[in-house]
Structure formats: C-alpha cells, structure tokens
Amino acid sequence: MWLAAAAPSLARRLLFLGPPPPPLLLLLSRSSRRRRRLHSLGLAAMPEKRPFERLPADVSPINYSLCLKPDLLDFTFEGKLEAAAQVRQATNQIVMNCADIDIITASYAPEGDEEIHATGFNYQNEDEKVTLSFPSTLQTGTGTLKIDFVGELNDKMKGFYRSKYTTPSGEVRYAAVTQFEATDARRAFPCWDEPAIKATFDISLVVPKDRVALSNMNVIDRKPYPDDENLVEVKFARTPVMSTYLVAFVVGEYDFVETRSKDGVCVRVYTPVGKAEQGKFALEVAAKTLPFYKDYFNVPYPLPKIDLIAIADFAAGAMENWGLVTYRETALLIDPKNSCSSSRQWVALVVGHELAHQWFGNLVTMEWWTHLWLNEGFASWIEYLCVDHCFPEYDIWTQFVSADYTRAQELDALDNSHPIEVSVGHPSEVDEIFDAISYSKGASVIRMLHDYIGDKDFKKGMNMYLTKFQQKNAATEDLWESLENASGKPIAAVMNTWTKQMGFPLIYVEAEQVEDDRLLRLSQKKFCASGSYVGEDCPQWMVPITISTSEDPNQAKLKILMDKPEMNVVLKNVKPDQWVKLNLGTVGFYRTQYSSAMLESLLPGIRDLSLPPVDRLGLQNDLFSLLHKQADMQEEKNRIERVLGATPLPDLIQKVLTFALSVSYSENCV
Ligand code: BES
Ligand code: ZN
C-alpha cells in the first residue's frame, strides 16, 4: 500500500547552466558507449538564446509526395515534392523549413483551379526557413504545393548525407543515408519540420539498379527510370501520419537476414556486404522485442515491416526512424565468433530502445522538443524492461543501477546540473539537452515511477496514453494524466518534483525500537556533492520510499510516499535483532544516510549476502558519495568510521574501498 498525501508547496530552482554541446560521437570504450548522453556537465556559459518563432499555422501539409534522385558519384541530389496542403487562412506566402537546399521552381495549385507560380524564394538561412511568395492570394482550402529542388549529399552526417564504405574487393564507395532528428529533414527537402506538424508520406527513390533502396515503408513498385537505363524508380507504400524527423531513406549496397516476428511483422537486419551473419543476433532480439512491446502496450506495431540497418558513418548510436531504424555498426552487428557478452547486451539494449520508440515517440510524438527528455528517458528505461524480459539471464537491471542510475546521481549532485525538463526554443538548443540528465536521470525517475505505480496500472496507463494520442502529439503532462487515471495516485504532483527541479534528496533515517515495532524518523535534504545544501528554501521532493527488513530482504514491508521534509513511520512487528533498510532494489532516486546504529545492523546482511546485490550496490554508492563530501561531512565520516572500526583518515577511504569492493565482488552477481 502506498500512503499518499497532498503535494507540498515546493521551492523550485530553475537556474540552468547548460552543458556544452555534445562533441562528435566517437566510440571510445565500453563505459563511453552511451557517450552522447554521458558527456559531463561542464561549466559552459549559458548559450545566448536566439529569438525563435515556430512556423505559422496558416498552411500545413496533409501528404508529402516526395521523389529523390541521389547521385552517388557527384554527391548531389535532385528532388521533386508534391505536397497536398491545407490553407487554413488566406495568405500570399508559404513559410517552410529549408536548409542548404536550392529551390528551382515552386507553385501552388488550389484544388480544381489554376496553378499559381511562386515569384520569390526568400531564404532565411539563420532560421533555416524559406518564404515562398505568390503573386495572388492562396484562398482557404486544399491544394497542391509543387517544389523542384537540388541539394548536396553532404559529409556532415546529418540531413541526406554520404557514407563511405569499402567493398569486399577493397573499392571505396558511398551510400546515401539520412539522419533527421532533431531538425535536419529540412536539409533533404523543404518541409514543415516540427514534430507536431504530422502528415503522410509517399516516398520514391531513383537509384542505380544494382543498389538497395530503403525507406520507412515497404516497396510497392519498382520500374525502370525512363531517362537512364542504369536507374530504377522505387516507390514505397504510404506511411501513417508522422513527424518529419522520423522519415528516412538509404541507398547503398547491403546484405540482409530476415524473419517474421510472432505478430506477423517482416523484420530484416541489413549489414555491410558479406557480413549478414553478424546481423543474426540483432534479428533475434528484434523478433523477440516487437511482440514484447505489442503485449506491453496492448497496441500492435502499425507497419508491415521493420528494417534495422548498420550504417558505416553514423553520428548517433542509433535512430528510431519509423520502420527503418539506423544504427552505427557497433550497436547492431555481432560477430558470432569474436564477441563478448557485454557487446550482445549492448546490442540488445540499443535494439530494445529504438523499437520502444516505434510506439513511444513515433506513434505518439512529443508536441515539442521540450518533451524530448520523456521520449528518451522512457525509451532508456523500457529498453531494460524489454531486455530483462527477453534475456533474463543477463541480470540487466544490475547494470542499469551501475551505469545509468549511478552516473545520473553523480552528475545531478553537482551544482551545475539542470532540471530534466528544460524548455527548448530554437532548434540549436535541442542538441544541448541530449545528455545524461535527460537519458539516465529520465530513465531512473521513470523506473521509480513504474515501481510506485505498480506494473499492472502502469501498463494500463501506457495503453490509455498510446491509444488516446496515437498519430497525434502529447506533452509530458498528458502521460502523467493517463497514469494518474490508471492508478488513482498523484502522479503529476510527484513527478513535477523530479523533473522540474534539478538534484535529488538525501534521506536521513534513524530508528528506535518501541516494544514490538520499529519507529523510523525520516528527513530529506537536497544532496550536494560539494557539501551540505546551504540556503533557505531547500528544495523538497515527493519521494516514493520502500522499506525492507531482514525478515524478507527481497520484499518491501512498507511503501510510503514521503511528501514532507520530515516524517515518522512505524514498522509493525520488527524484532530488535532485525535490520531495516530503505530503497529496495535501489529504485528510488535518492541517497540514504543511516544512523550509525542502523548502518551497523546492516553489516551482517552484507556479509552473509542476504541483502540483494543491487541493494548492496546502492548502499556502497551512498557510502562512497557521503565519504567524498568535503569538510563539513566530518560527522558522516565519523559514523562510517565507527561502523568500520576506528580507522584514522585517510586510511579510512582505502578501507571503505576495500570493504565496498569485497561486498560487490564477493559473488558474480554484482
Ligand atoms: N533518438 C535518439 C537518437 C538521436 C539523439 C538523434 C539525438 C539525434 C539527436 C535515439 O533514440 C537514441 O537515443 N540513440 C542513442 C542510443 C540509444 C541506444 C540510447 C544514441 O544515439 O546515443
Ligand atoms: Zn532514443
């Protein structure tokens, strides 16, 4: 039973010193695999906010009919767009996003009326927009906007770009691939490049006939290109309504392995030529993952196929384009003869992450980039749920704690951290928020929320959310509302304390035996790596807290919602010799500081390993972090010192280290 109470009024600190923009992605080591999200929070100056306006709503797209003809030798492409559009308010101009593209001609034909040729293309390069001017007014109603344009297959790994590969015979060649998130679809074709402006897409590619051409949907036609016998025109089925950042196309040379998932989806993994074997593991993961999500969300995967493709030059780790998920090679390929289990676990997590987005992100899309944390935080949590379901032998949640949770706490304890939710205006701000806070803290607080709600109601709420907003857009509050309706718990009030203010609490706890019961006195204070929180108005959190005892170390004896700075809790029927521990499974995003007596009583549970491995890991992290705090933490140091046996500083740190390592490595599980 969760004990809830009304939300306290909270002091919110919204000062945000943004992290530096992520450096170019290079895979360095295992621990830096999630580099994109793990760059440290630097003391960068607040970037100057550029004035920013969203696209006007007077004209919007209904369907894009888009034909692209890349030249893989000259690194250029030609494009033809015929967009069915709706003029909502009479106007004589159309404003769209457009970057590094030259428009040759543009016209608008109102339905059943004469074509009106645009007389001016005014590029606002800084804003990545173009204004098409027409000599007469476009009246309200539907019509067709036609634009012919040319662009460069760039070498910037964004938009429509070239990716270099070497054939098995050693020849250097280029593929043409896309990476549109967050705001680079506008580099491939003029479009309304905002996540809330959804439309359907009919995509065709004109490509050399010996190349593979892929897009979001299945191929519905392939015919010779009239002007050149070496080319073919490949036409893909119409997509569901979707955001521009999820559109994708690939033209290159690839092998593939294929299967059909239990729920009837055709799954292919595309690999470099000659490496199809290396796609088999990801294929197995994808085929297991799709039915898992279908069951979990109780919403079917809406496309007939999904392709997963390894791209030789790829800036991110992977990208969830609807029906055509792109990966860097190390995030998808497994050499069955020469791979270690951690590589397989990584591939399983990445596949689990991107396939989760097919529902959470693609079917229901964030209304604006401000809600990106939810997209990424959610996928970064559910990837573990999925891998745990498909590969229970991996014990993957322990890795979540040792990687994401621990890292998020380390960063979020710094004075220059930032709230998970930051409002985003100009597209140039989007990249800055893809960091460990949005990914790893985001995932950690959703894990805590899932535990607070319980799996049954959480699933119910997810289904309500995905059904209500499918093919539409939603904001963070919409998810809270669905989960609130499903659970009857104060989700928005709880979650706002975790997403709108930076940092997390340290929970102090001391205990007293009162006859057969144990009385716990809890209090919370912001945890700061630099020392105790100083200042008035210490931020407060609504903290879901679980309490276990030695009677059953794997089961919460009591669950409470700590919604005040201080709280007393009575644990019924706890014998004097039993230990009591907070934060079962290290699920709550807080640190615990026990009185020395409580900490001491936990030692037998650590020594005899009856305390579960993830709980020991959490305890060890908390002890370390308390030790690392500086001067004014003498009291904590003394407490730990007493527990470990009077050891003089600085030997103490060494001793705790030895102690902690003996705890975590004394069995394989941690
Ligand atoms: N949507 C992101 C990829 C992305 C992030 C593209 C930022 C453009 C800008 C994708 O779902 C993602 O999160 N990829 C991760 C890897 C994943 C396994 C966590 C990445 O690229 O680091
Ligand atoms: Zn993601």
UniProtKB/TrEMBL annotation:
The record marks 439 as: Transition state stabilizer. SUPFAM superfamilies: Leukotriene A4 hydrolase N-terminal domain, Metalloproteases ('zincins'), catalytic domain. Its EC number is 3.4.11.14. Zn(2+) binds at residues 353, 357, 376. InterPro entries: Aminopeptidase_N-like_N, Aminopeptidase_N-like_N_sf, M1_APN-typ, Peptidase_M1, Peptidase_M1_aminopeptidases, Peptidase_M1_dom, Peptidase_M4/M1_CTD_sf. The active site is at residue 354. Its cofactor is Zn(2+). Its main location: cytoplasm. It catalyses: Release of an N-terminal amino acid, preferentially alanine, from a wide range of peptides, amides and arylamides. It comes from the Eukaryota. The keyword Zinc applies. Residues 61-246 form the Aminopeptidase N-like N-terminal domain. Belongs to the peptidase M1 family. This is Puromycin-sensitive aminopeptidase. The gene is NPEPPS.
